[in-house]
């Protein structure tokens, strides 16, 4: 604070964070030009931001020279809600392999939900990637609506929420609220390709059982 007024955000830092968010949200690697367009910045400015992020291992280049998130982010994320990650991983792994779907946990961040941790099934032919750090609006998607139940302290007609082609075209999700002491409102969910026969009720029940098992870890 200065003179009773909040300090303006550091522009370069803000742009660097935005660059990481764009790379996290991208479906695959991005070129410098593509990232610059998403950020609304000149290529030269984007290049300097990328070089700085590369220096810290937060961004790296793929085989074709395009940009992807670097392994340094994993080291930063390792301690984010470590107890929550430890508690949910066994359940996510079991669910992912039982249903052949990617299982994940999202947590509330402002008016969005962000993926904290995800597990892809071992034997799936076409598993859907749900990268940690992926975020979307609270009012969209099954995890968002499941989390909103906790925020608004409301109960739905069913124990679970569903979504189809809302966040990403071609993808569907089932999610249940995950309310844990000492942690922001969260949801446990699966994501899968839209179409085909899916036992949504069975998945919803299984997710609710998993959520209850995780809650017991925190009692």
From TrEMBL:
Provide the HTH iclR-type domain boundaries: 10-71
What Gene3D superfamilies does the record point to? 3.30.450.40, Winged helix-like DNA-binding domain superfamily/Winged helix DNA-binding domain
Keyword Transcription on entry? yes
Q: What Pfam families does this protein map onto?
A: HTH_IclR (PF09339)
The answer on whether this UniProt entry bears the keyword Transcription regulation reads: yes
Q: Which SMART domains match?
A: HTH_ICLR
Q: Which UniProt keywords apply?
A: Transcription, Transcription regulation
This protein is called Helix-turn-helix domain-containing protein
Lineage, highest ranks first: Bacteria, Bacillati, Actinomycetota, Actinomycetes, Kineosporiales
């Amino acid at each position: 604070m200065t003179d009773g007024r909040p300090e303006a955000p550091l522009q370069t830092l803000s742009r660097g964070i935005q660059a990481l968010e764009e790379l996290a949200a991208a479906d695959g690697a991005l070129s410098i030009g593509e990232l610059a367009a998403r950020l609304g910045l000149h290529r030269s400015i984007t290049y300097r931001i990328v070089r700085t992020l590369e220096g810290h291992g937060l961004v790296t280049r793929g085989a074709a020279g395009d940009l992807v998130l670097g392994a340094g982010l994993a080291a930063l994320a390792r301690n984010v809600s470590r107890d929550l990650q430890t508690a949910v991983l066994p359940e996510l792994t079991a669910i992912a392999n039982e249903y052949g779907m990617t299982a994940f946990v999202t947590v509330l961040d402002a008016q969005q939900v962000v993926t904290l941790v995800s597990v892809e099934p071992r034997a799936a032919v076409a598993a859907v990637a749900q990268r940690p750090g992926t975020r979307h609006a609270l009012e969209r998607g099954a995890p968002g609506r499941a989390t909103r139940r906790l925020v608004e302290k409301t109960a739905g007609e069913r124990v679970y929420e569903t979504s189809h082609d809302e966040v990403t075209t071609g993808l569907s999700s089932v999610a249940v609220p995950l309310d844990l002491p000492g942690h922001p409102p969260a949801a446990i969910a699966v994501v899968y390709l839209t179409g085909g026969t899916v036992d949504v009720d069975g998945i919803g029940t299984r997710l609710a059982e998993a959520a209850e098992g995780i809650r017991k870890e925190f009692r």
